[in-house]
Amino acid sequence: MFRTLGATVLLLKISLTIAYRPVFIYHGILTGADSMGHLVNRIQEACVHPGTVVYNFGRFGGWASLINAWHQVQAAHDNLKLVCDLHPDEGINMIGYSQGGLLGRAVLQIYPDHCVKTFISLSSPQAGQFGDDFLHLIFPSLVARTAYELFYSRVGQDTSVGNYWNDPHHPDLYEQYSIFLPYVNNQLPSVNSTQYREALLRLNRMVLIGGPDDGVITPWQSSHFSFFDQKYNVLPLEESVIYTEDWIGLKTLQESGRLHIIERQHVRHYQWHRTNDVIDDVIMPYLD
């Protein structure tokens, strides 16, 4: 009996050792948990990841995804903490798609002892958003050139889009009115600046995924923390101040081999999480 029990315990330990970490998924704007169903199924059914536990964040679907970013981040933090409490030893991996990648990254920054080992940002506006194509999906009557008049106001800052709208022609108004992105990027100092950086440095890996055919994230390089200057030139990450001054630890992550920047062509924004070969090539290798 005791030999059988010992063998059972040994097998259990082996299975836990080779099991893949649970995955927490954060959906994009104007969608919800249901939209991530294909990705969830692919992770759980793939031959290399059978049965992986997946937590598909279910709050703020549809129009609720336009609620103020800080409100969403705090609620997602509470959910993530519950998940981390269930997996204190092995930790988890996290995937944030589109807006969910930006808000998910902020969740980690306000959670100093989070359990996330690998964070995957899947076509997310990490350096902000500025462009008509994206804007017209949500606010058909607005144009990028004048959208700052709404977004850089108290009313505009009640919306998640306003919170990461980054107009390169009005950097002064961006810093004056934006209550979210310049703070989580440590462009503007706050009492939490040190924590925001150190929380990201807890990661084993940060994976930034995007591509030139995305069609929604503008510029698409924002998925890699690059952005427009005032002449619409996109400054490479390594030449940007957020990197050179290491505001949130990107330089440290890269120099230690923990920052992975992936560019994939011929993928539209809504295909990243719904196309098997894309999922298999750019997501699955990082789920350990």
Model description:
- The protein is of the alpha/beta class.
- It has one domain: Alpha/Beta hydrolase fold, catalytic domain (Rossmann fold, 3-Layer(aba) Sandwich).
- It is 37% helix and 12% strand.
- The strands form two sheets. The protein has a six-stranded parallel sheet with strand order 2-1-3-4-5-8, sandwiched between helices.
- The chain is globular, with a radius of gyration of 19 Å.
- 41% of the residues are buried.
- GO terms for molecular function: palmitoyl hydrolase activity; thiolester hydrolase activity.
- Belongs to the palmitoyl-protein thioesterase family.
- It comes from Anopheles gambiae (African malaria mosquito).
- This is palmitoyl-CoA hydrolase.
Which structural traits does this protein have?
single chain; about 290 residues; alpha/beta; Rossmann fold; six-stranded parallel beta sheet; two-stranded antiparallel sheet; globular; disordered N terminus
CATH topology: Rossmann fold
Largest sheet: 6 strands, parallel
Number of helices: 13
Backbone shape: globular
- Total domain modules: 1
Rg, Å, rounded? 19 Å
For the secondary structure, the number of strands is: 8
Strand order of the largest sheet: 2-1-3-4-5-8
CATH architecture: 3-Layer(aba) Sandwich
Structural class: alpha/beta
Low-confidence runs (pLDDT<50, min 5 residues)? 1-17
| Oligomeric state of this protein | single chain
Mean pLDDT: 93
